[in-house]
Specification:
The chain is α/β, with parallel strands linked by helices. The chain has helices at 11-24, 35-41, 43-46, 63-73, 88-97, 110-137, 141-151, 157-176, 183-197, 202-213, 224-227, 235-241, 244-252, 259-267, 288-303, 314-326, 332-344, 346-352; strands spanning 3-7, 28-32, 51-55, 78-83, 102-105.
């Protein structure tokens, strides 16, 4: 059961909030009307709290200082601040300074409060799930080592450690989604083969492989309920899913060694006619590496099992790719090469490896 802590020097407020939460949500609620007494009580050492709601103006210690202290004791707690209109500027500033999840102005709206709490608890659960999944990622150390060897000639040990972490996050995406095991590795192998047929140079092929492997890294922030949904996504769920290229680009762009892959991660769902996402880029803005990853990604998604359907046949998969070529959505040269790879048995060999 999720646990929530409410701190306010007014007993009426803690009582009202506690009653509301217990009526609307099945959570265990702790309350305190005195920051000093809370700190001395040992509650923060004895109980793992998922979410805390604190008033801003209180005796002995203000809400920001108290939340900062609580975060030091329980770093993964989700902090929410209750504030009056006059304190709004301080609350907004604390979003970055403190890592505040949300602030609510008094008087609050009950429906909004419940929704914020539910979303905050979901955030806490997802973070805990990510930590647990890291154990699973250890099983994929061979892949991490392979990528480390690929890059160590060009980057120092510190940068390699950063890259290893990012690749681990990419593997975590596959650990979240039972239907895409080895998807990134297959996409990478198909992309490399296409790149060689397109006569890309050695450096291009290196970054193409990296870009293909981490192209879905942004899905680390996508809820598993959406990734593994057995039916069609709702418009709202699809909008959440569509955010993963932007989220992925945000992860890799600050890392010097991966800057050349950030555009591939951001644009692998763009279409040459501008009908893709997230930016509706057109052919003149989509480089050859990104086009290659897009074709490899679409083909693997069609040809393999997904949560909502069984994998299609080669003929059905190529038929859809041909339709996209005719519609001007993907690069016809690459689909032509892919057909030749199917005919030569090159694609069959890739799928027999996984």
């Amino acid at each position: 059961m999720s646990k929530i802590l409410i701190i306010d020097d007014e007993i009426m407020i803690t009582s009202t909030l506690s009653t509301l939460i217990q009526m609307m949500l099945d959570y265990e609620v702790f309350t305190s009307n005195d920051p000093k007494q809370l700190i001395e009580s040992g509650l923060l050492d004895e109980e793992k709290i998922d979410l805390v709601i604190s008033d801003f103006i209180m005796p002995y210690m203000n809400g920001l200082d108290l939340l900062s202290l609580i975060k030091k004791k329980q770093p993964h707690i989700v902090p929410i601040l209750l504030t009056g209109y006059s304190d709004k500027e301080s609350a907004i500033k604390s979003i970055n300074d403190l890592g505040l999840y949300y602030y609510l102005e008094k008087p609050w709206d009950n429906n909004e409060l419940i929704k914020v709490i539910e979303n905050g608890i979901e955030k806490s659960k997802l973070e805990n799930e990510l930590k647990q999944k890291l154990v699973i990622i250890e099983k994929k150390n061979n892949e991490i080592t392979r990528l480390y060897d690929l890059l160590r000639r060009d980057y120092d040990q510190e940068m390699d450690n950063v890259l290893e972490f990012v690749i681990t996050l990419s593997n975590l995406v596959e650990a979240k989604d039972a239907y895409t095991e080895n998807h990134t590795r297959r996409v990478a192998d198909i992309a490399i083969a296409l790149g060689k047929h397109m006569m890309l140079n050695k450096e291009q092929l290196k970054y193409l492989e990296l870009g293909a492997i981490i192209h879905d890294i942004g899905k680390v922030s996508t809820p598993e309920s959406i990734l593994n949904k057995p039916g069609k996504l709702t418009p709202e769920e699809f909008e959440i899913m569509k955010d993963h290229p932007v989220a992925g680009a945000r992860i890799v762009k600050p890392i010097t060694a991966l800057q050349k892959t950030s555009e591939m991660v951001l644009s692998h769902h763009e279409k040459l006619d501008g009908s893709g996402y997230p930016n509706g880029s057109t052919a003149d803005k989509i480089d050859i590496e990104t086009r290659i990853i897009a074709v490899a990604d679409i083909f693997d998604a069609l040809y393999t099992d997904r949560p909502y359907r069984k994998g299609m046949t080669l003929e059905q998969s190529i038929g859809i790719l041909d339709s996209d070529v005719i519609a001007g959505k993907i690069d016809g040269r690459l689909v032509h090469i892919l057909k030749e790879m199917i005919g030569s048995g090159e694609i069959s060999k890739i799928y027999h490896e996984y």
